[in-house]
Amino acid sequence: MIIDAHAHLCPKPYGSVEHYLSQLDLSGIKQGLVCPGGMVDVRRLGEFTSGRRQADPIPCNDYIQQAVLAHPGLAAVACLDPRLPHAPEALEEWVSRGFRGLLVSPLVHPFSFLDECVAALAALCGERDIPLVSHTGFRPGVTPGDFIQLARRFPRTCFLLEHMGGLQADMDVVDAAASLDNLFLETSLGTFLRLQETVKKTGASKIVFGSEFPMSHPGLELKKICLLPVSEAERDLILGANVQRLFHLH
């Protein structure tokens, strides 16, 4: 079983559920874990990272729910702004609707992983047995080291770090994933060499396959996993079994 654990959908042609499903079909993938996209237009990402353009702060969780209800092969992850006073109540509501995890986005919402509002959500994720998912950034408060610190603070919560922490993480994130039971790494946009070295260090049980649709193609990201010099059992863990267990997928 192959499950794409990292796709962003939005009601725009480049990120629509129909476009995503067509790419999954071309890739031979039947299941995907989807979360809100479109808050940042990834076709013009440099304008957002440089501050020339501002992100849309409102995640399209409703669109994600509609996509999942219409397509049984998809499962949902909610995105929330941790700074909003009602964020814990909103998370409870989305979980009650069948959402399987929480995404926080430091590129969209200017929080810190060290903020108490993030801590409250991390604790709630542990109580509800759902993972907290995020990427990291270059500004203080959202570095790979800050994410590791959050994972250490909440050992009962599972944390999934997108893009294996990014190039700036060096080996810190890899070392942390190897030593922390609750920290997992997602593969999208990573170089093959970094992916290969990460699997050697952490073992296949800590790695989750993802595509980062629409920025990348599920088939392209899948090819990297297929080329890894690992056993079929290890490949099965990376491609589906790990995410199935983390997000309680059927």
From TrEMBL:
<protein>
    <submittedName>
        <fullName>Amidohydrolase</fullName>
    </submittedName>
</protein>
<dbReference type="GO" id="GO:0016787">
    <property type="term" value="F:hydrolase activity"/>
</dbReference>
<dbReference type="InterPro" id="IPR032465">
    <property type="entry name" value="ACMSD"/>
</dbReference>
<feature type="domain" description="Amidohydrolase-related">
    <location>
        <begin position="3"/>
        <end position="249"/>
    </location>
</feature>
<keyword id="KW-0378">Hydrolase</keyword>
<dbReference type="InterPro" id="IPR032466">
    <property type="entry name" value="Metal_Hydrolase"/>
</dbReference>
<dbReference type="GO" id="GO:0005737">
    <property type="term" value="C:cytoplasm"/>
</dbReference>
<keyword id="KW-0456">Lyase</keyword>
<dbReference type="Pfam" id="PF04909">
    <property type="entry name" value="Amidohydro_2"/>
</dbReference>
<dbReference type="GO" id="GO:0016831">
    <property type="term" value="F:carboxy-lyase activity"/>
</dbReference>
<dbReference type="InterPro" id="IPR006680">
    <property type="entry name" value="Amidohydro-rel"/>
</dbReference>
<dbReference type="GO" id="GO:0019748">
    <property type="term" value="P:secondary metabolic process"/>
</dbReference>
